[in-house]
Sequence to fold (621 residues):
Amino acid sequence: MNEITYIICLPIFAGILLFLIPEKLKTIKGIFAAAIALYALYQSILVFNGQVGLYNLKELLGDSSICQLFPNSLNDVAKYITFNIDNLSQLIVLFVNIFAFLIILYSIVYISKEKKVFNYYSFFLITLGLSNGTALADNMLLLLVFWGALGFTLYKLIKGHDEESSATAKKTLIIVGASDGIMILGIVILWKITKTLNISEINLLTDNPLAIAAFIALLIGSFTKAGAFPFHSWVPDYAKDAPASSSAYLPASLDKLLGIYLMFRICNNMFIPNQWLTLIILSIGVITIITAVMMALVQHNYKRLLGFHAVSQVGYMVVGLGLGSMIGVAAGLFHMVNHALYKSGLLLSAGSVEYRTKKNNIDEVGGLSKTMPITFICALIFALSISGIPPLNGFASKWMIYQGIIDFGSGVGIANQLWIVWLGLAVLGSALTLASFIKFIGGTFLGKQKVEFKEIKEVPFLMWLPLVILALFCVCFGVFASNYIVPKLFMPITGEFSFIGIWHSTTVSVLILVSLLLGFIIYLIGNIKNFRTEDSFVGGGETMREDAHFATTGFYETIRNFGFLSKIYDKAEKRWFDIYDISKKIINWFSKGLQGAHTGVLPNYAIWIFAGLIIMLLILL
Fold:
């Protein structure tokens, strides 16, 4: 399986090589990186269509000269460097490389004007190789190496040229790094219990404190990477301050794929969650859905709005995998892929708007559908997809999650009995998502066009081509969901199952298309010439002024100022619910306490040393 070597090592080595090329040749670096990403995509297709199985380092190297020079050393190392190609890792690797290639095409133009972005393509390719390694690693230590290095590349792909973006980069690194430390603790506990670190060899019941502690520690790592509550606060900040291509590459696509991938391994391969852990997982899922979408509703910065939705949609994936049933797990994985498709498309669309207007506030743009029609149509498809509008892919995976919740309700556990709560909150989250994307599409592309934007043009070909491809994915994955996409891509992972109720994605799509055509025909055969046009009504007999502008975000301020919600939003703005700020305040308080103990008086230090020695002796005894 030389393909494994190619998709991991080649991007990493190519990324290191690009450090040697001057930044003034950024476009050439971009073309070279795109060629490497394209070749990695080709190799990932071979992996996807290849044989499944476990492979170690010796099998990958074959009869190479390295094996002949260091036979004994390779025997020791090979037991740690093991890779597992199964249906899930094949799927993850395929889409990791699809997104990498599309986003790097977009970046060739988008990053060319970012003068303060350095070594972007180097870290982009290194991230690609590390992501492929994470998805294929079977040994937990090997996975941890790839996983931890991804935290550093995530940090480096933020520009960091001003105080705000530098603070976001530091926050991201600390949160992700802290979760990696907790993962190490979980791995140590696993080793103590099982005496193995190979994922394929672990299958534990969560019926004792040690197993539960290991489960929770590893779950925290997956939740942080995916951006689930309460470890999500880095995602909206990253989406706001990082280049749109970086946000589309990591928080929107690769981090979601890898975070949910690890959650699948934890909940379906390595552990068997008990009913109380299932209750916790489902609770976190619906809390993630509602809290993040409520924050998205009141955002004015459209990149930050999309960042909160990147968090909210994780909740659906967590709920799907938390159900534990075949249809639930398949729905969670399907939504994982769907989210990566439409959310990366939305962030790239936002990047296109920012590229042309130099604005990132919804109140400062508007009416761009006339001057940027391709971006508008693609963004509209992405917005309808994430809102769960049929027949697009977001509806298909959400509908499967709803089916999985209803089926889950037939169980006898406490989490099963609360199925109506999980279903109600999931549906409410979808409705609120639609409301916030009416704001995004209406405020950005519809409405009255501002004078300063009348002369702007559509973005260049390399920027809108990835949008079109992602939009086509959203349409095809929705239309062919039940008869091709789910059976071919997800049932091999979970096992075959039957859909609940009467639902066939292709039939629904045809019916929707027929209804639209009939409506259009009725409109054409009617007396379409018999209509009148009038000025917009603004009250009384007043004529609307040419320079009048009504901010789309104004309506959503009623939510921001509504009763008890206003108090919660006030606390959220002060970061009362941000685990990073909470931890920082606790550490600062503790540090001040320690500083108070350092009085500079020698007898006091002697007392502290003596007390410390007594405590250590008591622990040892």
